Amino acid sequence: MARWRLRRRSRSRWYAFLILLALAPVGIYYFYTEIRPTVIFGLREDYAHAIPFQEVPAGIDSLRAEACGECHQAIYEEWKTSIHAHAYTDPFFQAYWTKDQHVWVCLNCHAPLENQQPTLIQHIPDNRVEKAVQVENPRYDTAYQQEGVTCAACHVRNGKIMGPFDDSAAPHPTEYDPAFRTTAVCHRCHNVVSGPFQFYNVGPCGTYAEYEGEFFMKEKGFTCQHCHMPEISRPVADGGPIRQGRQHLWRGGHDPEMIKRAVAIQVQADPPDPEPGDTVTMTLTLINAGAGHKIPTGDPDRHFTVEFYVKDPSGQVVQEQTDTMGRWILWQPVILEVYDNRLLPLASRAYRFSYRIPEGRSDLVVDAQVRYHILTDGQHDMLRKNYGLRSNDPYRYTIYTRRFPLSNELAVALHAETGADSHRGCSVAEKSGHAEEAIS
Ligand code: HEC
Ligand code: HEC
Ligand code: HEC
Ligand code: HEC
Ligand code: HEC
Q: What distance in Å separates the CA atoms of residue 405 and residue 282, rounded to the nearest whole number?
């Protein structure tokens, strides 16, 4: 009797298990279609829609950047070299966009005018990107899409050209818009927010949130333009009066020189004049001395590595250490930011590396190196293998490298280092007292 009951109980457990197994795919399907959004960020009213269709303002022939360039040549030439001009054609964007099955919402920042988009969004049920009701856009201009964040995306509204001046004499209608002198022009696209079932501190391209209330905004009153659109005196249009304007350059992560402007680096050693047999500790301090937001910022793939290599005279690496600064996000099954060890403006972090110099050796050196990565090597391989990334655009660069002898010559090398150019901006940083915990 007891045995029979036991068998019956185990059989009913077995049934329960089978039912669960049968239901699992339904549950997973439901989770991925109804609960977890396919798009990695939430929608906010200002970028949920394209910038409405714009007509060509009176007095000019076309909205094309090239047409503006006929009179605003210097600005056009600068814009052409900027990532904004390539926000659609950018091979990294194209590869990731293919991975995300060409979902429409990406275009609202990467080719943001309705004139540049193949479909019109009629309705977005429950703010769910993948459920949007789309129809063909009869006024779609394929060639214009290639221009990415083009002049009109920032400047053309309702048949007028919006700008920072209230006294211009232009062949086209103009309107003074104070937003050009504030961060409001950048906010829409540079402050992606997180969505349901996503646990970030800030969204994936949430640069604005890292700037708001921090040193360069609060103490210095800098806008994004101060650092990303350098000031210049020149005619605004060819042949016009000289005015104070700004270069349309927007340099960032794709420009090693810009990265170098963001960081200050100091290296120290303890003891500074080691003998064979001593354990020497090298400390490399990385300071966010020149960026108005965290470094790295923007795309969550961006990261720095701080690397130490002990090498023998033949160049053979005998010991090495690599630390990473960035954010680490778990993408599945829910989006969860596991850590974010990026540096806020003026914050610093010390990276430590210890090495015991073998007895009798004074011919070893240590190479200290800092690199910036647009993507991880793994992501880069994945995009090449599966999503058609073909370009050979650089995706990581060395922004600092120095060699130090592991001998009593070390102090001299460190001293020479103190005078080196990499120290730009330290003085501001030292005063801040924002130093963070040390990493070893
Ligand atoms: C035929 C020449 C010409 C063309 C084409 C042209 N502009 Fe202008 N634009 C001017 C002149 C001239 C001014 C006034 C310069 C001044 O007052 O110093 C001006 C002024 C401006 C200003 C400043 C407005 C303000 O009041 O702050 C902006 C912004 C601007 N243009 C953008 C554009 C854009 C964008 C395009 C293309 C869609 C364009 N322009 C096409 C000649 C031109
Ligand atoms: C219409 C959307 C939009 C607006 C408005 C906008 N940006 Fe961008 N910006 C982008 C996109 C999209 C990218 C990334 C393009 C890419 O890498 O494919 C970008 C990239 C950048 C970069 C990074 C360059 C690099 O090398 O990675 C900087 C810096 C930048 N923008 C600054 C600004 C500033 C400053 C403003 C305000 C004056 C601004 N942006 C306004 C969409 C915009
Ligand atoms: C991402 C937004 C953005 C894009 C794209 C953009 N501009 Fe501007 N533009 C600005 C901002 C911000 C200013 C205000 C700079 C200042 O404070 O003087 C400005 C200023 C200007 C001015 C006034 C002169 C000056 O330097 O201030 C002209 C003319 C102009 N832009 C033309 C263009 C043309 C032509 C293009 C395309 C080739 C273009 N802009 C693309 C944001 C943009
Ligand atoms: C004090 C100067 C300063 C201010 C203010 C500033 N930035 Fe930057 N920004 C930098 C420097 C330097 C870099 C290069 C370091 C990096 O890419 O991590 C940079 C990088 C960037 C990048 C490139 C990220 C990438 O991975 O390619 C973007 C996007 C950006 N800034 C947007 C903004 C926006 C938007 C604002 C205003 C809210 C702003 N910045 C304010 C100095 C500044
Ligand atoms: C709200 C505006 C916005 C939307 C929507 C958006 N992006 Fe971006 N994207 C940006 C900005 C701003 C940057 C630049 C940040 C930086 O430089 O790190 C960027 C940068 C990128 C980059 C890095 C490009 C490079 O050269 O390294 C990729 C890839 C990218 N976006 C893909 C996408 C895809 C795919 C989608 C749609 C799923 C999308 N973006 C939607 C604003 C947006």
A: 12
